[in-house]
Specification:
The protein is α/β, with parallel strands linked by helices. The chain is 47% helix and 15% strand. The longest helix is centred in the middle third of the chain and has 29 residues.
Length: 256
């Protein structure tokens, strides 16, 4: 399977490390003009350099996906340079440093902040790119949710599980709304991957016995990598997925 994206512009959110960095790199290596954003400027610069070292093209900008005006401004900048964007990967998200606590301890801010970064940001970016994708009668939108959106969160964070489930619902709704313009909208639900400082810290907290128990819950009996998630994005963004939309692909090692 030969996948390339020469002549295509791709936007990747949350690209400072982990899944987002792997996705940006994979797209850049295959010829896409990548525009990557995050709130972590230093790590974002590292992503840009990795893409450059791999012979790819990647421009970066610090963007807070929770801010609608900032999101639309970033997309307008991209369109002013590229003319159009063909691929959007909504990867920005996370737990924002929160840990699992009892339901009655969760504040309004705790709840809203996680929804803002995991769901509202994806909605804003889809809003911003939709007119251009409609005009060219082509588009690929890939949302990165989580296994927590299909089941329960290992962290016990109610808002995270709910926000990721909401993002999956948004994926299906947008797939039906945008399909007549040849815009596909799909979702990837990663399993447990050591992709960022939070996931590494979480894994280490389990201890050897807990880590072994977690891995034994996977049919493949091993953890995945950020590149495994990026490979799913490459498929959904490619012409091989031309007649696939509104779908959720669980990349989780065969979670039992």
């Amino acid at each position: 399977m030969n996948i390339h994206f020469r002549g295509k512009t791709a936007i990747v959110t949350g690209a400072a490390h982990g899944f987002g960095r792997a996705i940006a790199l994979a797209l850049a290596e295959r010829g896409a003009s990548v525009w990557a954003c995050d709130i972590l400027g230093d790590e974002l610069a590292e992503t840009k350099q990795l893409c450059k070292d791999a012979g790819g093209n990647c421009r970066v900008k610090v963007v807070d996906v929770k801010n609608r005006d900032t999101v639309f401004g970033f997309v307008d900048e991209i369109l002013s340079v590229e003319g159009a964007a063909q691929i959007l990967v909504n990867n920005a998200g996370g737990v924002l440093g929160q840990v699992g606590r009892p339901l009655e301890e969760i504040t309004e801010q705790d709840w809203d902040s996680i929804f803002a970064v995991n769901t509202r940001g994806a909605f804003y970016f889809a809003q911003a790119v939709a007119p251009g994708m409609k005009a060219q009668h082509y588009g690929r939108i890939i949302n990165i949710s989580s296994g927590a959106g299909l089941g329960v969160s290992l962290t016990g964070i109610q808002a995270y599980a709910s926000a990721k489930a909401a993002q999956i619902g948004l994926t299906r709704q947008l797939a039906h709304e945008l399909g007549e313009w040849n815009i596909t909208v799909n979702n990837i639900a990663p399993g447990f991957v050591l992709s960022n400082p939070n996931s590494i810290k979480q894994f280490e907290s389990y201890g050897k016995e807990g880590q072994r128990a977690l891995i034994n819950r996977f049919a493949l009996k091993r953890l995945g990598s950020a590149e495994d998630i990026a490979n799913g994005v490459l498929f959904f963004a490619s012409d091989y997925a031309n007649w696939i939309t509104g779908q959720v692909l669980a990349i989780d090692g065969g979670k039992l």
